[in-house]
């Protein structure tokens, strides 16, 4: 998709739902950098590892003054169970199924597995500066060492 926001663009300010049922927009984080990481599904192997890795480094991100927000299409109640089961230290949010932030970013895409075509989240991470502009994008993320790489880039802001 050529019209998806990229480096230098403002992150679309589309509301997400927190596990507690509140609404949060990316603009709520203005004034400090934000790591916005999108992942396919709670409690699957790669997504669990990614969330645990970001959780393990949450204190380091906080020391660097950087907020963390993980996003999937899972329902808020599912996020609550996922956080509790794995003792996650990152904030999670649910993206609306239709016309959500992932759609606006062009990362809610057609996927193909075992010959079956379906819509799914492309694992993508955005580093957003204090003004809400995208400064770095990791597309089709490989989970191993990803959180550490993002922390290194965030510290450089």
From TrEMBL:
Keywords from the named record: Antioxidant, Disulfide bond, Oxidoreductase, Peroxidase, Redox-active center
Organism domain of life: Bacteria
Annotated GO MF terms: thioredoxin peroxidase activity
Subunit comment: Monomer.
Job description of the protein: Thiol-specific peroxidase that catalyzes the reduction of hydrogen peroxide and organic hydroperoxides to water and alcohols, respectively. Plays a role in cell protection against oxidative stress by detoxifying peroxides and as sensor of hydrogen peroxide-mediated signaling events.
GO cellular component, one term: cytoplasm
Top-level EC class as recorded in UniProt: oxidoreductase
Catalytically driven reaction(s): a hydroperoxide + [thioredoxin]-dithiol = an alcohol + [thioredoxin]-disulfide + H2O
Biological process according to GO: cell redox homeostasis; cellular response to oxidative stress
Domain Thioredoxin: start-end pairs: 5-157
Protein's UniProt keywords contain Disulfide bond: yes
Source organism per UniProt: Caenibius tardaugens NBRC 16725
EC numbers: 1.11.1.24
Catalytic site: 47 (cysteine sulfenic acid (-soh) intermediate)
PANTHER family assigned to the protein according to its UniProt record, in alphabetical order: AHPC_TSA FAMILY PROTEIN, THIOREDOXIN-DEPENDENT PEROXIDE REDUCTASE
A Pfam family it matches: AhpC-TSA
Protein family per UniProt: Belongs to the peroxiredoxin family. BCP/PrxQ subfamily.
Protein name in UniProt: thioredoxin-dependent peroxiredoxin
């Amino acid at each position: 998709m050529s019209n998806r926001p990229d480096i230098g663009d403002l992150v679309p300010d589309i509301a997400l739902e927190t596990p507690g049922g509140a609404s949060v927009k990316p603009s709520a984080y203005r004034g400090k950098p934000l790591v916005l990481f999108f992942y396919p599904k709670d409690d699957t192997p790669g997504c669990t590892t990614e969330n645990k890795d970001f959780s393990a480094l949450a204190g380091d991100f906080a020391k660097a003054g950087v907020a963390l927000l993980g996003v999937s299409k899972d329902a808020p109640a599912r996020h609550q169970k996922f956080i509790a089961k794995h003792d996650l230290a990152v904030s999670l949010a649910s993206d609306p199924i239709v016309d959500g932030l992932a759609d606006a970013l062009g990362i809610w895409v057609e996927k193909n597995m075992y010959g079956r075509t379906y819509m799914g989240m492309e694992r993508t991470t955005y580093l957003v500066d204090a003004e809400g502009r995208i400064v770095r994008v990791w597309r089709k993320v490989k989970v191993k060492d990803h959180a550490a790489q993002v922390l290194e880039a965030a510290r450089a802001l």
